Amino acid sequence: MRIGVDLMSVSRFARVAEHRRYRALVFTERELSEAGQLGSARCLERLAGRFCVKEATCKLLGRGFGQGLRWPDIEVCADDWGAPAVALSGGARRLADEAGIGDIAVALTHQVDLVMAVAASDRGRPPSPYRAAPREQDAGAGAVGGLDDVARMAAEVFGSSEIHVAAAESFAGDLGATSALTIELLTRLEEHYGVRIPEPDFYQMTDLPGTRRAVARAVASARDAASVPEPAAAVG
């Protein structure tokens, strides 16, 4: 038997749930549509619960943020009786097939500001060790200055020190950083540097070098866009 569990604060998840782009990173159109039919408080509670189920399912699959699957690969729906259920696609489906996992049962409960989810499967093999693809050296990361705040903000969000952040080979493995905390770091970085980090780069933010590269590329892209001159107005 394989099992995964997750616990989260609904109010802390509000910043993600209330931001259009961050919601789109995490949830499918169906999940957002179903939650959007509820009042604001119930919508927040529902999305926090759905995210909690996704996290529990990730733990069942033996993978985490940036390790071969995306959050929309796990869609949380409801059966005919209203009980939560998951549908896998993409990287999540491949991981389940590799581990011999068939049906996944999930349970979800709310209490005041907390939500808890459990995912279980009656069979399955341990997943093969995760091996990240070698990352190409990005010259832009060194060319863009002013990135010293990346380590500081990561340390604040993860409740660690800059020394530990710099030494960590994996934010999740070495610092216990959850996916929700990584999204919180994303929001702070984008606000601080005034950029938008693309989704592919967001999934590379699993350690300090990867995070700095993601920010550097976003900063460089913003500078390039700002340097493009406006087209001259036509003379009538």
Descriptive account of the structure:
Helix 3 packs antiparallel against helix 4 and helix 7 (148-158) runs antiparallel to helix 10. This protein folds into 2 domains: 2-121, Ribosomal Protein L22, Chain A (Alpha-Beta Complex), CATH 3.90.470.20; 139-223, Non-ribosomal Peptide Synthetase Peptidyl Carrier Protein, Chain A (Orthogonal Bundle), CATH 1.10.1200. Strands 1-5-4 form a 3-stranded antiparallel sheet, with helices on one face. It has a two-stranded antiparallel ribbon with strand order 2-3. With 236 residues, it is an alpha+beta fold. It has helices spanning 14-17, 20-26, 29-36, 40-61, 90-99, 139-143, 148-158, 162-167, 171-175, 179-193, 199-202, 208-227; strands at residues 2-9, 74-78, 84-88, 105-111, 114-121. The longest helix has 22 residues, at 40-61. The chain has 12 helices and 5 strands.
